[in-house]
């Protein structure tokens, strides 16, 4: 089942929703960063939340950055999505391991830790990006995303995210949904959504039973008639390149470049998102210096 995002609108109620299945995206992140299970789950949840938020953007070249910084051992989690939902990210301490908090239940909340903050940066291709920050509610990420939408964007939201890790530490399944109320939603609509969420239960169980992104929304929003707005594939995608790294080196300026050549005689820069290493010899650095 290929990774994908679906966006729907209820025809008979003021409700919009997105759902994602992202097993390959999260597994790719695990392989790149060599995360242990609790870090895999935390990074995977953040990637999927950011992916769905990015996919909501109307600006073709826009992006969403999600930063989670708690008091737990994982440290900072940073993820970025383009406007199609292709995402990339990393966790500061990928080798964190914690005891399970229940049968097959990874303790993401303790790994992220409280107190802390969730920050969303939306680059809408304007002069200044939109930045919103809220305190972490639980560190479980889905609840924190729900809190962000309620506090920063005043959009009542239900968010569920799940990553199921195999005994060999690979990702078995990953997915989630964002359900949002539009103006005019009454108590009956809210009750129907709450009932649907309770009926479906944990996202990972629905995915393990064979549900894809569309089936996930059809189950949760079974009380409504849904119109599919878009469904498209997504993947773990990094946009780093030697050209971008070269521009970053040039932006250091003449003095810092001269100091780098004098003190190290070479440079090796590694992308935080995909671990791609870019090597620059003394001659290459001197050529950059000459270009200034």
Automatic annotation (TrEMBL):
Compartment(s): Cytoplasm
GO BP terms, alphabetized: protein refolding
Q: Which GO terms describe its molecular function?
A: protein folding chaperone; unfolded protein binding
The alphabetical list of record keywords is: Chaperone, Cytoplasm, Disulfide bond, Redox-active center, Zinc
Keyword match Lyase: no
The lineage's top-level taxon is: Bacteria
Q: How is it modified after translation?
A: Under oxidizing conditions two disulfide bonds are formed involving the reactive cysteines. Under reducing conditions zinc is bound to the reactive cysteines and the protein is inactive.
Q: Which family does it belong to?
A: Belongs to the HSP33 family.
- HAMAP family in the record, alphabetically? HslO (MF_00117)
* Record-given protein name: 33 kDa chaperonin
- The species is Lawsonibacter hominis
Encoding gene (name): hslO
């Amino acid at each position: 089942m290929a990774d994908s995002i679906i966006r729907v609108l209820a025809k008979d109620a003021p409700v919009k929703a997105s759902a994602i299945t992202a097993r390959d995206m999260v597994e790719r992140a695990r392989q790149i960063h060599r995360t242990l299970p609790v870090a895999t789950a935390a990074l995977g949840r953040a990637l999927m939340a950011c992916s769905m938020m990015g996919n909501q953007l109307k600006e073709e070249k826009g992006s969403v950055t999600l930063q989670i910084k708690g008091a737990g051992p994982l440290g900072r989690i940073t993820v970025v999505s383009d406007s199609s939902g292709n995402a990339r990210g990393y966790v500061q301490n990928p080798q964190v391991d914690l005891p399970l908090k229940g049968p097959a239940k990874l303790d993401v909340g303790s790994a992220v830790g409280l107190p802390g903050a969730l920050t969303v940066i939306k680059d809408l291709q304007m002069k200044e990006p939109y930045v919103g920050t809220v305190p972490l509610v639980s560190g479980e990420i889905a609840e924190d995303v729900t809190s962000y939408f309620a506090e920063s964007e005043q959009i009542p939201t239900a968010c569920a995210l799940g990553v199921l890790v195999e005994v060999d530490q690979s990702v078995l399944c990953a997915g989630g949904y964002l359900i949002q109320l539009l103006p005019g939603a009454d108590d009956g609509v809210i009750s129907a959504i709450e009932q649907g969420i309770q009926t479906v239960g944990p996202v990972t169980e629905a995915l393990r039973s064979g549900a894809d992104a569309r089936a996930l929304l059809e189950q949760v929003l079974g009380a409504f008639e849904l119109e599919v707005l878009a469904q498209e594939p997504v993947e773990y995608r990094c946009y780093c390149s030697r050209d971008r790294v070269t521009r970053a080196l040039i932006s250091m300026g003449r003095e810092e470049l001269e100091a780098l050549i004098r003190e190290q005689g070479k440079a090796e820069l590694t992308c935080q998102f995909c671990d791609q290493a870019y090597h620059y010899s003394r001659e290459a650095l001197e050529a950059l210096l000459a270009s200034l």
